[in-house]
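[recover] target loaded
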């Protein structure tokens, strides 16, 4: 039977230089899918308990989704996985572009590395042959330069590259992995693992066919999805999105958002469509989570109006198998920059470098986007770390002497730019901050941890749990803490899981704001469903934005059956998601991490409640929500550890 997985992984020992293939059983795919599921099974079994994330025993895996290349759409994402040096927990980050099919075209569902190379190397795979090559000529180069040089060396126009920039080489704990000239799998700090292993890049030039069990069925389903993707009414100016945010804030009820609205905005503007809307509604944190929409008013956020990003967009950017194309390439020649172009900055990047710092200078955001992408440093973590440093400076914990003379005041664009340049180079104060807020606060002491907004060590993204308690809950319970791409109340509304799984609650079209902010079991049921579902999505290579279309428009489970010949029900797939999540949690327990330590900084959950702005007076009863969530997973409600019974039920050995 043809199946859309390749049935093999590649194992590379960077210490000995040994490279070998391993066959993966059909049974493992049925239990864990590909992508994150395959990775967690391989790495749970092989990384020894307590391994130093930057030492030889940690492993790093590059995995493709089970549906990548199958003929389905929105399923071209790959993941980098391993033990995170930033959090000490299970770590993963996913990215689009064209790298996911490249892994499979080499004949593998994943490529895993262990050991430490004595010198900088990169992996080259072509025509069924894999070899480690000298990377001395690209060590020290940024991600875009590295990609250009290695593509030229490969002498293969179809080769694809994933690599680290200066941040990974410097083992910055907020380093990611870049592909497609600066798109980053940014979270979890896994770029530092590559740097510690002296693994600069992977260059993949395979030509293997990716098969599917029933391509005709996949196509039939795909055509139905495309009808929804193509439906696009003309949208007005981007500045109106801010008014939509205001209206949603003032509306007495909570509208259960349908992902079609977001799809339309994504198609026109990309993720930046949410910039001002998000500030107005109280979703985006402002001034290191201590401010509000009243500190970054519509006038101040006008420079990040979505229209300004598409005015300089010269090309739309599509990931593999994506019919939507939320990305873009922006011309920044006239923007006070040494660079000609940059990937259109993402929402997370823009808000972490603007509202969070009270920075109103758009040119600096384009410039910082490009240098952070080239360094392959996480823009969320970089922005959050600068916000932390500013608040330390404003409160006298850091002085001019500590900051190399930089006046770290709110909205001081010049200092913000200089500080991030220093973080990339690990120069002066930048060395202290290059490992993110938790490590910096520990080194600075003197109460600095009060200003470090993280969960379990990972800087928090640009979604405020005081506006949507689902975010606060997922930041606190995901085995990769501080993660915003698994679930929230808004995501639950958009996934529309209840249309496939009848036991799940249907929120209706409008629900009361009182119920939104009440800690009750319903939230745990929804959050647990989101986590399970997104593990299936991340095992398949599905883009989160595709998932937002809703399961009645995006037939994920049906595609999985058609691609593999399985006859699984939606409930079966949710159980697979539960198994993946439980094994991630077991990974953390194996490595001695206490699940209670994922809890985010108190300020971010409304302790004390904000005195003004969109989230005024709100605090989240996080303890109750966490217990209910653990309970729903069949994990111990007091410790968060999976019970022996649950492991047994899920067939986890
Ligand atoms: S919607 Fe955007 S991020 Fe998702 S696959 Fe398409 S281009 Fe990539």
């Amino acid at each position: 039977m043809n199946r859309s997985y390749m049935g093999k992984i590649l194992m590379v020992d960077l210490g000995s230089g040994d490279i070998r293939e391993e066959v993966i059983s059909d049974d493992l795919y049925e239990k864990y899918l590909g992508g994150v599921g395959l990775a967690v099974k391989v790495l749970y079994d092989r990384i020894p308990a307590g391994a130093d994330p930057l030492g030889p025993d940690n492993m790093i895996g590059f995995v493709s989704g089970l549906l990548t290349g199958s003929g389905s759409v929105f399923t071209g994402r790959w993941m980098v996985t391993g033990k995170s040096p930033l959090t000490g927990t299970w770590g993963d980050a996913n990215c689009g572009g064209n790298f996911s099919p490249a892994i499979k075209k080499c004949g593998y569902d994943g490529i895993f590395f262990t050991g430490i190379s004595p010198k900088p190397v990169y992996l080259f795979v072509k025509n069924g042959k894999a070899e480690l090559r000298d990377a001395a000529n690209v060590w020290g180069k940024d991600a875009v330069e590295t990609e250009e040089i290695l593509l030229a060396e490969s002498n293969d126009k179809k080769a694809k590259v994933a690599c680290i920039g200066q941040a990974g080489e410097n083992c910055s704990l907020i380093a990611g992995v870049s592909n497609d000239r600066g798109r980053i799998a940014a979270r979890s700090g896994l770029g530092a693992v590559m740097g510690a292993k002296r693994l600069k890049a992977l260059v993949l030039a395979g030509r293997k066919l990716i098969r599917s069990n029933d391509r005709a069925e996949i196509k039939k389903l795909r055509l139905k999805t495309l009808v929804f993707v193509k439906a696009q009414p003309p949208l007005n100016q981007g500045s109106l999105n801010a008014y939509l945010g205001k209206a949603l804030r003032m509306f007495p009820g909570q509208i259960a958002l349908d992902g079609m609205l977001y799809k339309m905005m994504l198609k026109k503007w990309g993720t930046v469509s949410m910039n001002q809307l998000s500030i107005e509604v109280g979703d985006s944190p402002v001034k290191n989570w201590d401010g509000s929409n009243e500190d970054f008013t519509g006038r101040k956020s006008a420079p990040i109006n979505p229209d300004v990003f598409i005015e300089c967009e010269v090309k739309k950017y599509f990931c593999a198998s994506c019919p939507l194309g939320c990305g873009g390439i922006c011309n920044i020649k006239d923007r006070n920059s040494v660079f000609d172009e940059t990937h259109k900055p993402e929402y997370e990047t823009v808000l972490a470098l603007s509202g969070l710092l009270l920075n109103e200078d758009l040119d600096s955001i384009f410039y910082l986007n490009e240098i952070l992408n080239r360094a392959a440093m996480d823009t969320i973590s970089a922005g959050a770390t600068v916000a932390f440093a500013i608040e330390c400076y404003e409160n006298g914990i850091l002085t001019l002497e500590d900051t190399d003379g930089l006046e770290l005041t709110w909205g001081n664009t010049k200092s913000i730019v200089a500080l991030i340049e220093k973080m990339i180079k690990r120069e002066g104060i930048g060395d202290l901050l290059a490992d993110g807020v938790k490590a910096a606060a520990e080194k600075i002491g003197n109460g600095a941890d009060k200003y470090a907004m993280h969960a379990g060590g990972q800087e928090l993204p640009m979604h405020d749990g005081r506006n949507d308690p689902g975010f606060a809950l997922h930041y606190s319970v995901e085995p990769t803490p501080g993660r915003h791409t698994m679930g929230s109340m808004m995501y639950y509304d958009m996934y529309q899981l209840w249309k496939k799984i009848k036991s799940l609650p249907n929120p209706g079209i409008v629900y009361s704001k009182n119920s939104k902010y009440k800690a009750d079991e319903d939230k745990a049921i929804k959050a647990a469903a989101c986590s399970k579902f997104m593990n299936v999505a991340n095992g398949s290579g599905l883009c989160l934005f595709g998932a937002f279309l809703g399961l009645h428009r995006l037939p994920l489970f049906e595609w999985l059956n058609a691609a593999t010949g399985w006859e699984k029900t939606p409930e079966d797939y949710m159980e697979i998601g539960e198994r993946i999540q439980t094994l991630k949690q077991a990974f953390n327990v194996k490595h001695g991490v206490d699940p209670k330590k994922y809890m985010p900084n108190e300020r971010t959950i409304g302790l004390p409640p904000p005195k003004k702005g969109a989230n005024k007076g709100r605090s989240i009863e996080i303890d109750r929500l966490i217990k209910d969530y653990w309970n729903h997973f069949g994990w111990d409600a007091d410790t968060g550890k999976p019970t022996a019974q649950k492991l047994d039920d899920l067939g986890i050995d």
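[recover] notes: The mean pLDDT is 97.
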